[in-house]
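Hey there, shall we discuss this one?
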Amino acid sequence: MLIPPLTAIIEQDGPWFVVTCPELDVVSQGSTAQEAEKNIQEAVELLLETAGEAEIARRLGRNVQIKPINIANA
């Protein structure tokens, strides 16, 4: 199965950095942004190693689109 480019969105939430891969609906965290990024990489790799093709296709088939928002009055 061909995996498209994936995204990591990292947000600080108190002392933690929460990271999401929206294309696969995978979430992780870390005490630093770098640790969170490493943890999401591991979580995505684990999902891809263990989930069946149908599950991966279902997650990728959600058709997530990430686009900038243009605010006219900002």
